[in-house]
Specification:
The protein is α+β, with helices and mostly antiparallel strands and 818 residues long. It has four domains: 120 residues, Topoisomerase II, domain 5, CATH 3.90.199; 80 residues, Gyrase A, domain 2 (2-Layer Sandwich); 128 residues, Topoisomerase, domain 3, CATH 1.10.268; 313 residues, DNA gyrase/topoisomerase IV, subunit A, C-terminal (Neuraminidase, 6 Propeller). The protein contains 17 helices and 41 strands.
């Protein structure tokens, strides 16, 4: 009472600063910005939770929107009803949300900017994918906090089983900051999550191979990739959106421009209004009519042109002066631990993955506790059934329930809950059948408890669960990309200027490498002398050849188990007889190692494996995506035993069979499934058991319908059907694949072939020959074969390459090359 009427002197500058900071933080944290974990603002989160709490799931009938608004206002969000309704309307708009979270009935607005009907007229329920945001929320996966009047609780964040922040994006203006996240394709974002789940250190450039860019619900086009790259790397950037248009020519000769997709968050009505204004003011000349023919099939704006009007000129002006082309300013701002942060794509995904690990751990703890509680009760019931007569006698002799409970606890060592469960037991549970059911349930619970404990003690198991659940979400909800990304004329990279043409890459024993067109080599008959493919020193010889195309990536594996990466166009182009450039000038390899395997890869070839084999018969299978990021200094591809070396690497899909062939002509065929996927630093497992003095010469990936071609150092070639090589278990000694003599020499190379294929053989003296496989007759497994190439006494075949049909380009008739 003494303080009543007392006047306090307060510095107004300090008070205004404090009050404004409190207001600003309230707007930032509780109103305008989404949480990085579930991608939702507080009002959106409260709407979805209220609908979930009301039972308005996707498989239940719709309810009036006014009922939902009232529930949200009454329990969770004490603000204006229009603010809640407008937020709910946006969650239901297919042209605003890439994956709508509310399934609405009635007028929820239009792409023309028309307002929705009043909440008393519309109905709503959760969409199917929204249930994934709320899945397992009842299992204490996320923390709950008191609501505004502490009459109930609400989730601080939703479990969000898919990365909603990036999939649906967000827009909001806070105090002194704003967020503007574009929506993305669900399948692409999950691909990005799976990449970082396996390799958190992956760079943004690798993410860009999986997440192509924003994917707007209205489709349209994105010009160029530079803005996307900048936004993904820094969290800020500008993406240019352009309408999808087509120029139609009528039979009268007049042209018309038809717009079928428009930029995101652009009103169709405003586009039409602006075009009409430009035509009326003659700022864009040549427009004679403008019609909106949009219907349920989609957007269709028709712009009629004069006969003499240039449609492309008119279109360029419309892109410049109307919202047919619009920029989307990306600001990837979200709350991280309650603080606003601008996030790169990589950071946004990593924050989401960390949160999902917490969700899985919390869910597992809940499931473990419930399983242990239930197992505890069942243990009491089993004690009762094992001592049934004594338990019944004790209960019958007890004066009341508390005395019976105390007797059960003291006589049989039951807990309070177990004793109560026994007292609550129905008589029908005392049958032999029911006892069997109780025992079976108890045994199953023990397995579940062991599994839950294993998950809680293993980060790898948590990661595997997260990966599995993300793939399930992707499989269930993935939709094709709507927004196409096209080149911006102002963004032309070096690779865009390189023609994607087939070429031959050759490398000598001393490490000289070059590329040249396949047209240099002409097809010859079996037994010919060939043409010179590279001039070499007397002590050097051509050792390796492969056919690829200019834009492909080539992985270079060394004998020491390291791998390097180059684009084919980065290799020097040289004439047919030039020796090329030393590989040491292109790759930082040491003098003690040499390139023993090269693998040309397509950019799309990431969903597969690299299958490796060493000279001592060790094999290993590693995901190709593990080699997506390779430092300029190279990385370890396989850990080798002392004295062993890596000899060959093949790209596979993981479900094939391989043939390992040794120098002495032994071969073993086994399935890739026999070799589990391993990390880059793993050693591998035994593929074939070698006999004294034998070494592995090469491997081939089995393709049904093809033959196995074996070429010896002495120029003999033999083709035999795959059926002659039975499948065996990994690690055996194999079977004879060819009969060798002193004249034929040891095995020089193996390939899977068909009759229409062509081969290229290369000798130690640098001689090349190209001929058809059909010139080599099919023989039995143990035969010697036929002469494929005449060799000088001091020469021998060292490498074999197969030219595929699409890469087979005939050269000059005289074979001189061009």
């Amino acid at each position: 009472m003494a303080d009543i009427g007392r006047i306090l002197n307060v510095d107004i500058e300090h008070e205004m600063r404090r009050s404004y900071i409190d207001y600003a933080m309230s707007v930032i944290v509780a109103r305008a910005l989404p949480d990085a974990r579930d991608g939702l603002k507080p009002v959106q989160r409260r709407i979805l939770y209220a609908m979930h709490d009301m039972g308005l799931t996707h498989d239940k009938p719709h309810r009036k929107s006014a009922v939902v608004v009232g529930e949200v206002l009454g329990h969770y969000h004490p603000h204006g009803d229009m603010a809640v309704y407008e937020a709910m309307v946006r969650l239901a708009q297919g042209f605003s949300m890439r994956e709508p979270l509310v399934d609405g009935h009635g007028n929820f607005g239009s792409v023309d900017g028309d307002p929705p009907a009043a909440s008393r007229y519309t109905e709503a329920r959760l969409s199917k994918i929204a249930s994934e945001l709320l899945r397992d929320i009842e299992k204490e996966t996320v923390p709950f906090v008191p609501n505004f009047d502490e009459s109930t609780t609400q989730p601080e964040v939703l479990p969000s089983r898919f990365p909603n922040l990036l999939v649906n994006g967000s827009a909001g203006i806070a105090v002194g900051m704003a967020t503007n996240l574009p929506p993305h394709n669900l399948a692409e974002i999950i691909d990005g999550c799976l990449l970082l789940l396996r390799r958190p250190e992956a760079a943004t450039s690798e993410l860009l191979q999986r997440v192509k860019g924003p994917d707007f619900p209205t489709g349209a086009l994105i010009l160029g990739r530079e803005g996307i790259r900048q936004a993904f790397e820094t969290g800020r950037g500008s993406v240019v959106m352009r309408s999808v248009t087509d120029v139609e020519v009528a039979s009268s000769g007049k042209s018309r421009i038809v717009v079928t997709e428009i930029p995101y968050q652009v009103s169709k009505a405003k586009i039409i209004e602006k075009i009409a204004e430009l035509a009326r003011e003659k700022r864009v000349d040549g427009i004679t009519d403008l019609r909106d023919e949009t219907d349920r099939a989609g957007i269709r704006i028709v712009i009629e042109l004069r006969r003499d009007a240039n449609a492309q000129v008119v279109l360029n002006k419309l892109f410049k002066y109307t919202p047919l082309q619009q920029s989307f300013g990306v600001i990837m701002l979200a709350l991280v631990n309650g603080r606003p942060e601008v996030l790169s794509l990589r950071e946004a995904i990593l924050h989401y993955l960390d949160f999902q690990r917490e969700v899985i751990v919390n869910r597992t703890r809940f499931d473990l506790r419930k399983a242990e509680e239930r197992a505890h009760i069942l243990e009491g019931l089993l004690i009762c059934l094992d001592n049934l007569d004594a338990v019944i006698s004790l209960i019958r002799s007890s004066a009341d329930a508390p005395e019976a409970k105390d007797g059960l606890m003291s006589s049989f060592g039951m807990s309070d809950r177990q004793a109560q469960a026994v007292l609550d037991l129905r008589l029908q549970r005392l049958t032999a059948l029911e006892r069997t059911k109780i025992q079976a349930e108890y045994d199953e619970l023990q397995k579940s408890i062991s599994y839950f404990r294993a998950v809680l003690n293993s980060e790898d198991m948590v990661t595997e669960i997260l990966e599995t659940e993300l793939r399930e979400i992707q499989k269930t909800y993935a939709t094709p990309r709507r927004t196409k990304i096209i080149a911006d004329p102002g963004e032309i990279s070096l690779e865009d200027l390189i023609a994607d043409e087939p070429c031959v890459v050759t490398m000598s024993h001393q490490g000289y490498i070059k590329r040249q067109p396949t047209t240099v080599y002409r097809a010859q008959k079996r037994g010919g002398r060939g043409i010179a493919g590279m001039n070499t020193k007397e002590e050097d010889f051509v050792e390796r050849i492969f056919v690829t195309s200019n834009r492909r990536t080539v992985l270079f594996f060394t004998s020491k188990g390291r791998v390097f990466r180059l684009k084919v166009y980065e290799l020097p182009e040289a004439g047919r007889t030039a020796k090329g450039t030393a590989i040491v000038n292109l790759l930082p390899i040491t003098g003690e190692e040499k390139i023993t395997a090269v693998v040309p890869l397509d950019p799309e070839e990431t969903e597969g494996y690299l299958f490796m084999c060493t000279r001592e018969g060790v094999v290993k299978k590693t995901l190709a995506e593990d080699f997506a990021s390779i430092r300029s200094t190279g990385i370890i591809a396989i850990n080798l035993d002392e004295g062993d070396e890596l000899i060959d690497v093949r790209f596979t899909r993981g479900d094939r069979e391989v043939l390992v062939v040794t120098r002495h002509g032994q071969a073993i065929r086994f399935g890739e499934a026999d070799v589990r996927p391993m990390g880059r630093s793993a050693r591998g497992v035994r593929g074939i058991r070698l006999r004294m003095g034998d070494k592995v010469q090469g491997i081939a990936v089995v393709e049904e319908g093809l033959d196995l071609l074996i070429v010896t150092q002495g120029g003999m070639a033999k083709r035999s059907p795959l059926a002659h090589y039975r499948s065996q278990g990994r690690g055996g000694s194999g079977i004879k694949a060819i009969t060798l003599t002193q004249k034929s020499g040891e095995v020089a190379g193996v390939r899977m072939v068909e009759r229409d294929d062509e081969l290229m053989l290369i000798t130690g003296n640098g001689i090349l020959i190209r001929f058809k496989v059909s010139d080599v007759p099919a023989k039995g497994r143990t035969s010697q074969g036929v002469k494929a190439m005449r060799l000088d006494d001091d020469d021998r075949i060292l490498a074999v390459a197969k030219l595929s049909e699409e890469e087979d380009i005939d050269g000059d008739e005289e074979g001189g090359g061009r």
